[in-house]
Amino acid sequence: MPTMRRIATAAAGSLALALAATSCSTGGDATETLDPNADLSEQTLTVSIWADYYPEDLAEQFEAATGVKTTIVNHTTNEDIVAKLTASSDPGIDVAFVSGQYAQALGEQGILAKLDKSLIPNEENLYPEALELAYDEGNVYSEPYAWGTTGLCYRPDLTGYDPTSWNDLLDPKPELVGKTTMLSTDRWLSMPALKAAGHSLNTTDDAELEEAKAQLIETKPTLLAYDDTTFYSKLVSGEAAMVEAWDGWCNYGIAEDPSIKFVVPEEGADLWVDTMTVLESSKNKEAAMAFIDYILDPEVQTWVAENILYKVPNKAAMEALDPALIDSYPTLGITVDELTQQETIVDLGEDTVKYVDLNAEVLATN
Amino acid sequence: MTSTLQREAPVPFLAPGVLFLIVFMAIPVGLLAFYTFFTRGRFGGIVFDFTLDNWAKLFEPLYLGVIMQSIGMALVVTVLALLLGYPMAYGIAGLSPKWRTVALVAIVLPFWTNFLIRTYAWILLLNNAGWVNQWLQGLGLVDEPISMLYTPQAIIVGLLYMYLPLMVLPLYASLQQLDPSLREAATNLGATPWRAFRTVTLPLSIPGALTGCIFVFVPAMSNFVIPELIGGGKTIMVGNLVRDQFFEARDWPFGATLALVLTILLVIVILVQNAVSRRLTEGPRRG
After folding, report:
1. Is B126 part of the contact surface with chain A (CB cutoff 8 Å)?
2. Class of B28-286 per CATH?
3. Do residues A32 and A132 share a domain?
4. DSSP code string of A289-358
5. I need a labelling partner for A63 at 20 to 30 A (CA). Which of A78, A296, B193, B276 fits?
6. What total of structural domains would you count in chain A?
């Protein structure tokens, strides 16, 4: 597969890349039998994926390899695609990319088809750990596409030291007041405060959430801003010295300023996974399985790691990475052990409201 | 009240407009109102269990506070826009036709550029490491960068910049339409220029000013991009709340409640504007 170098454009276009997360358990439907000898060229495929998250000619490549006429459409966030998938009984999408916790929830709702592993032999390229992720153990409904964690992305020349703890962000040194940003979306707003206090990032305990909320409200006046999309540019410009960042996005800063560093604080962080799922309503399931199998090809996933600068759960692909790239972007070198020690974000069902309210209160407090 | 002209307008001419209003206004707002009485679905959407919780939640101090703060900020923006926009419109109306066109194009020109791009341009200019601070420091005017972004004041400036043209244009239209002979008459009868302005021009331009105020107040109150980008997400307005309920919280019923309240508030503002405007203009029209 031709490798397209697109680091800079990936960085610029990644504004719309919505992020990821994770979680547990699965529901179940009877698997319909798929025909391993189905004529794929008779099938068509519609794939929905985040913009700027895949090779531009992916549809053509897959079509050339299998004869399946393929259309790729983009979504901007998990919420966006989930709304489409749940709005009607046949959304006209065969393969949907969603974060792990959403795959879990959609699987529980019977919206996803069980994967037919006989049609996905490339699953063997995955790290064994990538088959034991809490949101979908055994990868019944989903195969992982990319994964990563969250930490502190910082400029040592501006911080003057190497931060090691979430408290470096939550209670910044006086000289860093007004020079830090935090993520404000979904569960990443509360994660630093929960982790710093030694709580699970999936807690539903009201006292723990209350404690985190108080900490976040205390931290708010010390922030330059909340920023979910341009935090790495604030580092590059020197407006910010330290930001809460997804590892892959910190790389977009490193691409412009190699002195930028990333650290997962000692209290730990999250493990997020973006996954590929097949819709139960799909009439082209054989082609859909073949598509997932095609993506799990080491060459395709090497492209993802090299160009999107996200880690991929594909052992063969990661081993094929150019060591020089890992030198430039150390987050790509985070080992599977280190990564899987982090806590996966679990879909909390009805208790999700607690986090929604926490976010609203922290963000609305002056 | 309703003018005779409207009452006699033939149905075929009204039909497209009425249809448009039904499809794009009445039905959506009706749906919004309907949604406010039900429960949120797990992935967004609506579960049809009747509840009044959404309305109760609205009166929690947190949300009430955000609504009041938005009204306050939109009011400040509107007053500033009026103070800045009136002299601008007055000046433009007094220009020769050629320069008038130039001035109007200059005012409308920013609208040709995408609003997000203009917002990012402000960030590029005003951030702590931005051009303005670089120049100020380069010229030795300041030692430390001045923080100009990510404050409530920055939001007000951003909104003012964005919506000032919407104040200037209706004001200009009403000032430009004023019959010059009215002012001449006042002057001929011995009024000083200031008195002629105060007693003739100013009252006659009030409907235009009120329209401008509505044009600024309404979008300023519901904007959510400027608080997020220029305000750094640290101060939220009711527009952010509505957006977050749908996209982050997946709580459509509460989002619908907030949106409906916002709509009702703005309709009230428009009704008041209409009533005031009509009282001011009814006399001359009847005569």
Report:
1. no
2. mainly alpha
3. yes
4. HHHHHHHTSHHHHHHHHHHH--B-SBHHHHHTS-HHHHHH-GGGG--HHHHHTSEEPPP-GGGHHHHHHH
5. A78
6. 2
Residue B14 has pLDDT above 60, yes or no: yes
pTM of the model: 0.81
Chain A residue numbers touching B49 (CB-CB < 8 A)? none
Mean pLDDT of B61-71: 92
Pick from B130, B240, B251: CB nearest A356: B251
Residue of A nearest to B237 (CA): A364
Please, which residues have CB within 8 angstroms of residue A265's CB and are 6 or more apart in sequence? A151, A152, A163, A164, A165, A166, A168, A169, A192, A195, A196
Compute the nearest-CA separation of B45 from chain A (Å): 8
CB-based contact (8 Å) between B72 and chain A?
no
User: Same domain for A71 and A18?
Assistant: yes
Contacts of A224 in chain B (CB under 8 A): 128, 150, 232
Let me know if residue A11 belongs to a domain: yes
Give a yes or no: residue A2 inside a domain.
no
State ipTM. Answer: 0.78
Smallest CA–CA distance, residue A264 to chain B, in Å, is: 24
Strand partners, A47: A72, A95
CATH number at residue A296: 3.40.190.10
Which whole number is the average pLDDT over A22-48? 67
Judge if A219 and A355 occupy the same domain: yes
Give the pLDDT confidence of A294-333 residue by residue, as tens digits: 999 999 999 999 999 999 999 999 999 999 999 999 999 9
Residue B1's pLDDT is what? 46
